[in-house]
Amino acid sequence: MKLIIDKESLLFAVQIVQRAVSFKSPLPVLSGIKFSTYTDNLSDSVQLALSATDLEMSIQCILAAEIEELGSIILPARHIVELIRHLPNIPVILETSDGGAVLKYDRSEIFLNGFLVEEFPSLSFSTENPIVIVKGDSLKEIIRQVIFAVAKDENRPLFSGVLFMIKEDELEMVATDTHRLAWRRLRIEERIKESEVRGEADLPEGNGLSVIIPAKALLELSKIIDSTEESVRVCLTQNTIVFSTSYTCLTTRLLQGQYPDYQSVIPKEQETKVRLCTRKITESVERASLLTSDSSPVIKVSIDNNSMLISANSSAGYVNEEIPVSVEGPPVKIAFNVRYLSDILKVIDSKEVFIEFGGPLVPTLIRPSTSENYLTLLMPIKL
Amino acid sequence: MKLIIDKESLLFAVQIVQRAVSFKSPLPVLSGIKFSTYTDNLSDSVQLALSATDLEMSIQCILAAEIEELGSIILPARHIVELIRHLPNIPVILETSDGGAVLKYDRSEIFLNGFLVEEFPSLSFSTENPIVIVKGDSLKEIIRQVIFAVAKDENRPLFSGVLFMIKEDELEMVATDTHRLAWRRLRIEERIKESEVRGEADLPEGNGLSVIIPAKALLELSKIIDSTEESVRVCLTQNTIVFSTSYTCLTTRLLQGQYPDYQSVIPKEQETKVRLCTRKITESVERASLLTSDSSPVIKVSIDNNSMLISANSSAGYVNEEIPVSVEGPPVKIAFNVRYLSDILKVIDSKEVFIEFGGPLVPTLIRPSTSENYLTLLMPIKL
Prior knowledge:
2 copies of one chain form a homodimer.
Chain A: E1 2-6, H1 7-17, E2 32-40, E3 45-53, E4 57-63, E5 66-69, E6 72-76, H2 77-85, E7 91-97, E8 100-105, E9 108-113, E10 132-135, H3 136-147, E11 161-167, E12 170-176, E13 180-187, E14 190-191, H4 194-201, E15 209-214, H5 215-224, E16 231-236, E17 240-244, E18 248-253, E19 272-277, H6 278-290, E20 298-304, E21 307-314, E22 317-324, E23 326-328, E24 332-337, H7 338-346, E25 352-357, E26 364-368, E27 374-378
Antiparallel strand pairs in A: 1-5, 1-7, 2-3, 2-6, 3-4, 4-18, 7-8, 8-9, 10-14, 10-16, 11-12, 11-15, 12-13, 13-27, 16-17, 17-18, 19-23, 19-25, 20-21, 20-24, 21-22, 25-26, 26-27
Helix pairs in contact in A: 1-2, 3-5, 6-7
């Protein structure tokens, strides 16, 4: 392989694909990034493809380069990313040589040992028959709004994933670790005929599609989606989902299993309804969290007389916060894990927040005042 | 004590004094910040003084507040700084109560347990009889230019300090860990009569003043000096040095001992002299460092035919960098610790750098092309 490419494009691409590199795998080749020439059948042009995988998730990035010789090489991610970052901002020659590759720039050169190309797993990025096309910034937003609620421990693999559903012209995502839950709905712009997909992917019949995507892949996806409005195509195969833009593809294995019936948990009507300023409660909860202990991150909330009292104490002292609220319904005394409450408040972007309390054994519902398409639930703590 | 103060002033002050707080000391009270009312004898006004100490270094910050009752309290630094950071941006009431203090703001309040005031060491910040007054930004700059060269290990306490000298109308600072050395000279604007000082501080007679200041204190000093042009007064007592601006004082114990004769190490005339672009060599050394191993961070440098070759290799590969230079004198082949060389290049701000080589057993001299007031030395590595 021999090619000429400018430093900035190369840096952009390695920074994207390195997110799938596995530095901890017993297979050393997975700590590498694959550089290979790639023939686009449509345009019959030859481009450069970079790819990496941790066997769960894989990322590919295609970029234009002046290709002089076809070929491929696997280079160690840690070195190649840092080296490219430090190259002068000029065109660079990349040429395979002696089991590795030489980078030439200006009057200087770098040689890096490579991994055996045969040892790198073959990756497939099927971008045909998309089931849905979503705007990049919308996808980023909904990932951010649900992903905080997934389980962090690996004992319950299903809860470390996000439920991804397509129902007619809506996309829904749900995440929960059983202590809190986030649900988000998005109207989708372009919905591809279901029958086409079902034929290929053997998906469940009936009310749309429903798969469970590992949170890690969605998190990386949200980082590599450009914040421009570019569309993201979503394609399904039997065991994988592929997200692709014009130059980048991310694919991940799906989690197998039956996601719990989240709908039955969402309360229909709660006794006490409160509306208040999102910034005020966020700041009060933040201060209160500073006076909880790590072993007991609990804050108490009580609602009465159009005010919300938030209190916490630890060996260092105590805090009593009072916030004006509009209340509908009887007084409330309840307690929460302050970190969980804070996680939720951080992703609520509206000026005002609605909170509905159903009692100390029922999840509290928290949602932006401006949207019916987003809600979160938080289980109170028994005192 | 009872006072009213605005959040931003309070935050500014606690962020400065917390740099002297000791979280690791066996004396718990040193993890606190002292808040006390302070009567300025000159203006007869009462202000708020914040102070902290780790027994080596102490910082005090005086700020205007609406004082209603005199008094003092020691509050835990970790909590008070974070709490103040998160307060709403409004005036706050601070009032001692029950062995601690209450902060009141809006309709909310925080109580923090305090430490016993009697347990806090009494601190003295003598700002009378300054020996010199230096512009804040100049002081910041010279600290940055020498401090990287101090010894990081604590086995040689003298080398963990910076030699601080005043000679007629010049201030000099020197730092070395015996592998590298940095020397910086600054013309000073205002020099106070030596005799005055000597009477009080019992300093050595003769060619000016010379003390050794712990690097840690200078580092913190450079962080708290405003980058505005404010003047910093430097005062000496027998064992301490005090740096003060209009509202902040930092004092530190001096290191005792005989600093080595650094002047004898500075080579007068070297065989090979080289001039080259600072950015080019900095970037080349940075890339080369990526292909050295942690156990042997060595790069080779050779000068010949108006070019400098920089090379390094590790199990990952190798790099050969070539940079155009103007050379005077015979060819050179030499090797350096890449981290030490990189540290030096980072603090050279001129467009071009002068390097003078005397051979593999003599320190290499590196200095900006624009100034006679700054030089660094770097011992080569024997190959």
